[in-house]
Design goal:
Elements lengths: L1 E2 L2 E2 L5 H16 L1 H16 L3 H5 L8 H15 L4 H5 L1 E4 L2 E4 L9 H13 L8 E5 L5 H9 L4 E6 L2 H13 L5 E4 L14 E6 L4 E2 L8 H4 L4 H4 E2 L6 H13 E10 L5 H10 L2 E7 L5 E8 L2
Parallel strand pairs: 5-6, 5-8, 6-7, 8-11, 9-10
Antiparallel strand pairs: 1-2, 3-4, 11-13, 12-13
Helix pairs in contact: 1-2, 1-4, 6-7
This protein binds glutamine.
């Protein structure tokens, strides 16, 4: 098979793997290409890693080969692997993604896992609010872990909410979705108080655009990423306003943050009467703040 400069030597799995490494290692690094191959073989053929490792001499159908061919073309164009296969796995939930939603990140997964560790499974009758939910990943993962919790999720984008609703359904979770712009407040939210308010709002400043990778810039929705340089914490002000009113007395506010704005975000939360604590992600970067309200 020969299209432009991509040529698979044969339909053999080994040759597919070789060509992917040949064409992509210099762009992504060999380790990342192994991850891509694992994801593609699972998505296209339903193979797990072990099956892939033990099936290198096997040949695949011409129609399947064509899918690998297009995936390789797309990856060369920096299209995210999650868009190529149409989903990503997040805290054990399969989350459909599209250009209308931010692709869930491992950093956010870490935050959700931390939240889960803070709330006991034996005391799961509590209420959770997820602001700027996007694909719904945070709300859905929490609802799946705490089936008895009442989970509400808000986003401004109707298109994102459509995906989020589909994700909730696919994962067998019942999340209450609301379309609202939190910058205009959140007067119609129910219930009245929440034990956990969590958010991964837009926090990348326009001036940081140049540092953002092409696969993010070209494929993630701008609405979910960028904030103006003259008011980079605008969403945190809105979140703090809502949380100050709606957080239960012993409740917890958890927000993902821009790693270079940790101090400013803490200062802002203190101004609103919260006691913030900064947490670093697995890369060692300040990535989220947990806060409770001073009594
Ligand atoms: N962490 C994301 C990125 O680096 C940004 C997410 C956000 O703005 N909330 O692209």
């Amino acid at each position: 098979m020969n299209t432009r400069n991509i040529r698979f030597k044969s339909n053999r799995v080994r040759d597919i793997i070789t060509l992917f490494h040949e064409k992509l290692d210099s762009m992504y690094g060999g380790g990342e290409v192994v991850v891509f191959l694992d994801m593609l073989f699972e998505a296209f053929l339903g193979w797990d890693k072990v099956r892939l490792l033990t099936s290198k001499e096997q040949t695949i159908d011409q129609s399947d080969l064509l899918r690998f061919h297009w995936a390789l073309e797309d990856l060369k164009q920096c299209r995210p692997i999650q868009h190529i296969i149409g989903y990503t796995d997040f805290c054990g939930c399969r989350i459909t993604v599209s250009p209308d939603v931010l692709i869930p990140r491992p950093e956010t997964e870490e935050i959700v896992q931390w939240c889960i560790s803070k709330f006991s499974i034996f005391n799961s009758q509590f209420s959770i609010l997820d602001l700027c939910t996007g694909s719904g990943c945070i709300a859905i993962a929490l609802k799946k872990t705490f089936p008895q919790a009442e989970v509400t999720a808000v986003d401004v984008s109707a298109a994102a909410l459509e995906i989020a609703r589909q994700n909730a359904q696919n994962n067998g979770t019942d999340v209450h979705f609301i379309q609202a712009d939190i910058l205009n407040g959140a007067s119609h939210l129910s219930p009245l108080t929440f034990h956990l308010i969590v958010s991964n709002p837009p926090y990348v400043r326009e001036s940081e655009r140049a540092q953002i990778q092409r696969n993010v810039l070209d494929y993630d929705p701008e609405l979910a990423l960028f904030v103006p340089d003259d008011d980079p914490l605008r969403f945190y002000k809105a979140i703090a306003t809502i949380a100050k009113e709606r957080l239960a007395a012993d409740g917890l506010l958890v927000v993902e943050i821009n790693e270079v704005l940790a101090e400013e975000t803490c200062a802002l939360l203190k101004d609103y009467g919260f006691t913030p604590e900064v947490h670093s992600d697995f890369r060692g970067k300040p990535r989220w703040i947990s806060a409770n309200l001073n009594p």
